[in-house]
Amino acid sequence: MRKYLYVILAFYIFLMGGCSQKVGVKALVPAQVDRISQTKVIAVTDFTHDRVGLSRKIEAKLSNFQIDNKKYFTVVSRNDINKVIAEQKLQNSGLVNDKNIVKVGELIGAQAIISGNVSPVTKQDSYFYESRVRCADRKCKKLVTYDVRCMKRLVGLSAEIRIVDVTMGDIIYADTLSRSASFKHCEDDSRGIPSKTMMAQNLADNIAYEFTYKLTPHYRRFNVKLLEDPDLDYTKSQEKLLKFSLQYIEKGRYSKAEQLLKELVDSTNMKSYVPFYNLGVMKEAQGKYKEAKKYYEYADNLMVKPIDEIDEAMVRINSLIANKQKTLKQLNR
Which pLDDT score, from 0 to 100, does residue 91 have? Predict the structure, then answer.
């Protein structure tokens, strides 16, 4: 028994040892639909056949969206839209006509109008059996297998959504967004299966989130691995500098870690790529991408054989710089 405990302990130590230290990075990502950033005063009309309230869910998400505690869109009141539609003797169904959309948009002061059509909610139920096992007697010396009847419910929802630029009179975005969900319920389940209506509401929320996500800049979070092992024959003093710098990084004390890593750079006569790379990771985590790129380039120039972490950093930092520049343009328009 003790032998097995040693094996388990050794395996646990191996796993723990294989977990490299990482640093969390929060990076700006631009909106997928870039042109919407030029038309931030928007209106959301009532979608046709919208029995799930999708248009209002989209309107709410766009109205409430903030980045760095600042609202990104100005959403025109639904009452103003309906008032103009009534005055112009139009129906919401008439807003599929681009001329009508532009006309309404100009009257309410919107730069872009979002309209759409929601397809009927689909529901498909299928039945099957699953096997179960239970005791055949009180002492459970024998087991018996039996079947229970089960049902699988698949619900789907799709919507055609488009955005028209009021000034230009053309379409900024047009796509069909679809979502589906499935649930299973068996006779011996204590929990019931959600209704079609409840599932459709959840799917509408998902579509509204996906649509809003396409229109808005956001932050992406990921982890970047640090280098923990020397690439040269370090002295004991240099090993301590690397070890302690990693400990300070883990505690979030980047200034102290930077000081130690720069000491390590000097003491190795700028021949070790490890401190340069780790400095780059810290700068990347702080959003200082140009400084990070400089350190990554130093590390890259010192490599003899390819190092995955450095290769990935070189590609990633260029992408982060380009994304940040594009996102800042979207935010400042």
Answer: 58
Separation in Å, CA 68 to CA 1, 71, 332 = 57, 9, 13
| Per-residue model confidence (pLDDT) at position 11 | 44
86 pLDDT tier (thresholds 50, 70, 90): confident
Average pLDDT over residues 104-116: 91
- Cα(18)–Cα(15) distance, integer angstroms: 5
The structure's pTM equals 0.83
Cα three-residue angle 283-286-290, rounded to 5 degrees: 50
Looking at residue 16, its pLDDT comes to: 44
Among 269, 268, 252, 161, residue whose Cα is nearest residue 215: 161
Q: What is the pLDDT of residue 303?
A: 92
What does the H/E/C string look like for the chain?
Answer: CHHHHHHHHHHHHHHHHCCCCEEEEEEEECCCCHHHHHCCEEEECCCECCCCCHHHHHHHHHHHCEECCEECCEECCHHHHHHHHHHCCCCHHHHHCHHHHHHHHHHHCCCEEEEEEECCCEEEEEEEEEEEEEECCCCCCCEEEEEEEEEEEEEEEEEEEEEEECCCCCEEEEEEEEEEEEEEEECCCCCCCCCHHHHHHHHHHHHHHHHHHHHCCEEEEEEEECCCCCCCCCCHHHHHHHHHHHHHHHCCCHHHHHHHHHHHHHHCCCCCHHHHHHHHHHHHHCCCHHHHHHHHHHHHHHCCCCCHHHHHHHHHHHHHHHHHHHHHHHHHC
pLDDT for 82: 79
> Per-residue pLDDT tens for 267-301?
999 999 999 999 999 999 999 999 999 999 999 99
- Whether 148 and 129 have beta carbons less than 8 Å apart is answered as yes
